[in-house]
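job 3f2a | input accepted
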Amino acid sequence: MSGLFAQDSSAKKEIIKKKINQMVPLALKEYGVDCWLTITRESSIDPVSYDLSAGSAVARMAILFFFEGEIFKKVAISASYDVTPLIESGIYDEVIAYKNEGIKPHLQNIIKKINPAKIALNYSREQPLADGLTYGMMNYLIEVLGEEYRSKFVSSEDIIVRYRSVKIKEEIDYIEKAVLITQKILDECLSSDFIKPGITSEADLGNALERKTKENGCTVAFTIVNVGASRGHSTPTERKIVPGDLIRVDFGVDYCGYKSDIQRTAYVLKEGETKVPERIQKMWDVVFSANREGMKMLKEGNVGNDSDRIARKIIVDAGYPEYPHAGGHPIGFDVHDIGAILGPNWPERYGDKIFKKLIKGQTYAFEPTIYVHDEETMGELSIGLEEDVIITEGEPVIIGKPQTEIYLIS
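job 3f2a | predicted structure (410 res):
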């Protein structure tokens, strides 16, 4: 289940109402859309429906946001047995209950009254959250409204991005709390107090992250622990952590429905060592530079590709392969939320998401990474550094305390 109503608390309901009232009218006007229509039903629930208290729909349900003159209107049409969550949400000015007549006449009446030139529907090539309209429901809408409306349909992608990804103060507070808890847990676990070389395993580290997450009143959003050779997204194993190991942890928590995504790197000193080996220190220095220089481009009005292009060039110019993924992504309701991708111009993989503009109030994770074949260990080593930031008109605000040097474990 995705979205705030997965947690169904009064605080979340108030945030949802505030966001709808603040973000949706602005988006409708900015993108020249007369009506945003979400239509959903059981077994093929539109993912954005959970945010709109429509996630438990059984029969067809329609959610409409539009202007009546200068008044912003919020209307839901639902089967009579589905209306309770809609009414209790406090979102809607009107909840219309239908019985044997079905949704058709009510939807026709509203659309006829609005007489929209553009109706935004939830379909999108690149953004999964904005792609909840099924082929069957699209055909149903054409059947109900008439073939002439086909040319009036546009994607709601930009509206959902504006509503979902731009955070209000209450949401920023939740995300900051999630990040601070994540950083605290990582500081405690990636230390000599916890990791005992030859005794502590990857699984021990993963279990400690989960235990400390629960102790801090959160749930684990995801956990990736790589010791030694990089394995990408994988489950922590029983492999023991030993001197000479490079440890990369990519980890996030869920605090009241909001996610963090932080990546940290540590090195286990060998006997006689007092610092990180030169080849690893060089990797860290390059990743750190890529992170900070690329991050400077994370400002309102820039596009997602701007930061990745800078970071990727720094890594490649230093003689390392380019990383095989985007340099960053939006975070918030989900670890990978909706919005511009901070990535390279790989059309088949990222489409036009890298050319979408950043908006003040969005939150992002930025993670340019080095992956390189290491002759000493004959495996692939990776250095990761990931920070969570808030987009502003100028340079972004880094949340919490960023990592500035590799953690040393003895």
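job 3f2a | DSSP finds ten helices and 17 strands in the chain.
job 3f2a | closed
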